[in-house]
């Protein structure tokens, strides 16, 4: 199906591994955040938000499916096996996406940070020389537009509300801030990916754009801006993860592991 | 938004979906939200998760002026025969007209028809 791209980019095994690594970053990010979102089912602040947030969760898992299917075409594994059967040290998601859910403010802050990053990443990948990716990304961007509007609205409302909501928002931002720097890494193959124009934007530039975009939203929400972004202690993009990731995988794969060969 | 502007209570919003630009906005249900922008945001996922649409309205229920249910039962009174107001006969016209047009004409009817045309033209030239 994607024979042309194989000629174009995957001329040697290093390029192939670099491309697969990038696709795993995208797929694992979306699967983890989608899974964490889905854990809110029945628990969101009101029934309307419950439906809306579950729908966002399904969108994220749908995007993960798209990336896992691209990966399945490049390998001998099925998309299901790639999603459910890989151990934590092979996962390429950023740590921010695997963190256990806290309160609602924590979820809003985490998701707003991630969605802003994801919007910028997709914006960059829309110009990727790897056509199957740039074409898929065009569709995914249209769905992510609503997610970002939704999360932006919540972020500004909770920040602007003052009182307990504001306190919880500030606590969540404090808790999550050290994970933000880990989003922007393109992993072990950034040089190769940039050279082949599979990614057109460096992680440094991505981080700069993220700060430019998030700073005015902090102002809108009346929350003081934090200048420094830290380098993460663990880099999820090279397979370093927290114990929270092990628990996530155990939960996520519990049904798959009952019988990996089952036909659904 | 100032702290005192934040509504403490949720409000009911009626939701209207326009399916295509050629359609009316149609009432699809209601949702509860703390503000119109949240109502609009959640209406999208609650009513257009599977369906498609081009436009959404949310209207605070308290802005709707409605008839009473029980204090004035005569508001909707229809006591006398109102059949004369109904446009019930028209759907039949298409079928009847087609039947009339498809009827096989006899030869003398065709002749009569032609004569009729000739007579008409004769009359027209005589009168001018």
From TrEMBL, chain A:
Gene3D superfamilies found in the cross-reference section: 1.20.1260.10
Identify one Gene Ontology CC term for this UniProt entry: cytosol
Query: InterPro entries recorded for this chain?
Result: Aromatic_CoA_ox/epox, Ferritin-like, Ferritin-like_SF, PaaA_PaaC, PaaC
One Gene Ontology term of the biological-process aspect is: phenylacetate catabolic process
| PANTHER family, sorted | 1,2-PHENYLACETYL-COA EPOXIDASE, SUBUNIT C, PHENYLACETIC ACID DEGRADATION PROTEIN PAA
Q: What is this protein called?
A: Ring-1,2-phenylacetyl-CoA epoxidase subunit PaaC
Organism (species) = Marininema mesophilum
Automatic annotation (TrEMBL), chain B:
Taxonomic source organism? Marininema mesophilum
Q: Which Gene3D superfamilies match?
A: Phenylacetic acid degradation B
Tell me the superkingdom of the source: Bacteria
Protein name as catalogued: Ring-1,2-phenylacetyl-CoA epoxidase subunit PaaB
Known InterPro entries for this protein?
Answer: PaaB, PaaB_sf
């Amino acid at each position: 199906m994607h024979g042309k791209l194989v000629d174009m980019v995957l001329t040697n095994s290093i390029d192939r591994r670099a491309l697969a690594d990038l696709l795993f970053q995208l797929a694992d990010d979306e699967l983890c955040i989608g899974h964490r979102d889905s854990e809110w089912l029945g628990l969101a602040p009101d029934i309307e938000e419950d439906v809306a947030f579950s729908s966002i969760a399904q969108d994220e898992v749908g995007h993960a499916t798209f990336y896992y299917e691209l990966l399945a075409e490049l390998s001998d594994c099925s998309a299901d096996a790639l999603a459910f059967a890989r151990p934590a040290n092979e996962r390429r998601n950023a740590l921010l996406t695997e963190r256990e859910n806290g309160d609602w403010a924590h979820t809003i802050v985490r998701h707003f940070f991630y969605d802003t990053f994801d919007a910028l990443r997709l914006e960059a990948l829309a110009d990727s020389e790897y056509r199957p990716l740039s074409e898929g990304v065009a569709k995914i961007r249209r769905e992510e537009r609503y997610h970002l509007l939704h999360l932006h609205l919540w972020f500004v409302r909770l920040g602007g509300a003052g009182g307990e909501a504001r306190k919880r928002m500030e606590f969540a931002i404090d808790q999550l801030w050290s994970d933000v720097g880990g989003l922007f890494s393109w992993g072990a193959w950034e040089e190769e990916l940039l050279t082949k124009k599979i990614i057109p934007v460096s992680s440094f530039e991505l981080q700069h754009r993220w700060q430019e975009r998030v700073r005015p939203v902090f102002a809108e929400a009346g929350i003081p801006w934090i200048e420094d972004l830290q380098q993460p202690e663990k880099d999820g993009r090279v397979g370093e993860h927290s114990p929270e990731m092990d628990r996530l995988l155990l939960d996520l794969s519990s049904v798959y592991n009952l019988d990996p060969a089952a036909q659904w | 938004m100032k702290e005192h502007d934040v509504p403490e209570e949720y409000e009911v919003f009626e939701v209207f979906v326009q399916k295509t630009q050629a359609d009316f906005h149609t009432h699809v249900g209601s949702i509860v939200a703390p503000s119109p922008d949240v109502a609009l945001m959640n209406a999208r996922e609650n009513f257009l998760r599977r369906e498609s649409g081009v436009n959404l309205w949310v209207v605070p229920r308290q802005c709707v002026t409605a008839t009473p249910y029980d204090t004035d039962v005569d508001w909707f009174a229809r006591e006398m025969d109102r059949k004369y107001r109904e446009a019930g006969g028209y759907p039949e016209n298409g079928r009847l007209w087609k039947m009339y047009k498809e009827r096989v004409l006899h030869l003398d009817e065709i002749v009569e028809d032609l004569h009729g045309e000739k007579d008409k033209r004769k009359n027209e030239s005589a009168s001018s």
